[in-house]
Amino acid sequence: MPDEHADDEGTLEKLLPLTDVLGTGHHAAVSAEVGPGDTVVVIGDGAVGLSGVLAAQRLGAERIIAMGHHEDRLEIAEEFGATETVAERGDAAIERVQELTNGGSNHVMECVGASASMNTAIEVARPDGTIGYVGVPYGVETDGLDLLSMFRNNLTLQGGVAPVRDYAEELMADILGGTLDPSPIFTKTVDLDGVPEGYEAMDQRDAIKVLVKM
Q: How far apart are CA 148 and CA 19, in angstroms?
């Protein structure tokens, strides 16, 4: 693309996540009822989880604790507004979040879709808290979930498929206004012939999102 269109290209890269992950992360934050001054836990350091961090920051959360397993992605989470990151796994991760939050958060965003991540969400949610879930539960069986803890702690679970178009206008306004930039989720660029390579990179966790340039 000619140099005179460099600014247009940069804007396009910022807008592209509107078609999917940015609206999905925003839906997780809305479903978790994140608002000004809140403490929120975001589970997942993929494109949706990182977009969720951006969304929580945009909605005014005071503390954003990002949970993930990849240091480079957690660095992006900090760039997006995470105040703390948790890279531990399993029970150690749950204990760390409970320590940071003095027993859990009222607002938890599940952005993975696995049984383990949902159980983590249940464990780090404070009693009477709300879990916003947008991770696609592919292959997840309900008998693997800690539903009893959810019941005992009176947790609210809401989310599902994100109505991305409903959020697009308000998010686009912030992108064009210069206050929202999700483009760092694109960590690899390929041409059309490199699409298989791009999918492989995402599958192997070598890339978060791949940008395809014609």
A: 36
In 3D, which of 96, 121, 110 has the Cα closest to residue 52?
Answer: 110
Q: Does one domain contain both 153 and 100? A: yes
Q: How does pLDDT run across 134-186, given as a tens digit for each residue?
A: 988 876 666 678 889 999 999 999 999 999 999 999 999 999 999 999 999 99
3-state secondary structure of 10: helix
Q: What is the mean pLDDT of residues 119-141?
A: 90
Q: Are residue 125 and residue 21 in the same domain, yes or no?
A: yes
Q: With respect to residue 9, please indicate whether it lies within any of the assigned structural domains.
A: no
Where do runs of H (alpha helix) occur along 36-186?
A: 47-58, 71-80, 90-101, 115-124, 147-152, 164-176
Length of the chain: 214
For the beta carbon of residue 76, count every other beta carbon within 10 angstroms: 21
Which residues constitute the domain of residue 199? 183-214
Residues 55 and 93 in one domain: yes
Closest CA relative to residue 111, chosen from 201, 173, 23 = 23
In a domain, 10, yes or no: no
pTM of the model: 0.91
Contact between residue 109 and residue 77 where contact means Cβ atoms under 8 Å apart: no
Strand extents, DSSP E, the chain: 39-43, 63-67, 84-86, 105-110, 125-133, 156-159, 186-190, 209-212
Is residue 41 within 8 A of residue 47, CB to CB? The reply is no
